[in-house]
Amino acid sequence: MARIVVEVMPKPEILDPQGKAVAGALPRLGFTEFAAVRQGKRFELEVEGEANEEVLDQARKAASEVLSNPVIEDVVSVHWARES
């Protein structure tokens, strides 16, 4: 069964309180290498049947119309998952 990964992030101009909280916690936990954090969403869509470009196009459409809020979020990636 194939899987499509959709990644959504807040638009750059939108405040990200969760990312800011994580960025504040990292140095306290000894992770001082990171200057900033933005937190987003990841969706995994399993595909029954043939995995083709038409299905990937449908995933892109679902990402922009259902899985993200275009006012405050950007769909940054829609791609086939790598098999591990």
Low-confidence stretches: none
Helix content: 25-40%
Q: CATH superfamily assignment?
A: Phosphoribosylformylglycinamidine synthase subunit PurS
Counting DSSP H or I runs of 4 or more residues, the number of helices is 2
**Biggest sheet, spatial arrangement of strands:** 2-1-3
InterPro entries: PurS, PurS-like_sf
Organism: Ruania alkalisoli
Pfam family, one: PurS
Keywords: ATP-binding, Cytoplasm, Ligase, Nucleotide-binding, Purine biosynthesis
Secondary-structure blueprint:
Blueprint: E1 2-10, H1 17-28, E2 41-47, H2 53-67, E3 73-80
Antiparallel strand pairs: 1-2, 1-3
Structure in words:
Pathway: Purine metabolism; IMP biosynthesis via de novo pathway; 5-amino-1-(5-phospho-D-ribosyl)imidazole from N(2)-formyl-N(1)-(5-phospho-D-ribosyl)glycinamide: step 1/2. Part of the FGAM synthase complex composed of 1 PurL, 1 PurQ and 2 PurS subunits. Its EC number is 6.3.5.3. This protein is an alpha+beta fold and 84 residues long. It is built from two helices and three strands, in the order E-H-E-H-E. It has helices spanning 17-28, 53-67; strands at residues 2-10, 41-47, 73-80. Strands 2-1-3 form a three-stranded antiparallel beta sheet, covered by helices on one side. The longest helix has 15 residues, at 53-67. It has one domain (2-80): Phosphoribosylformylglycinamidine synthase subunit PurS (Mth169, Chain: A, 2-Layer Sandwich), CATH 3.30.1280. The mean pLDDT is 95.
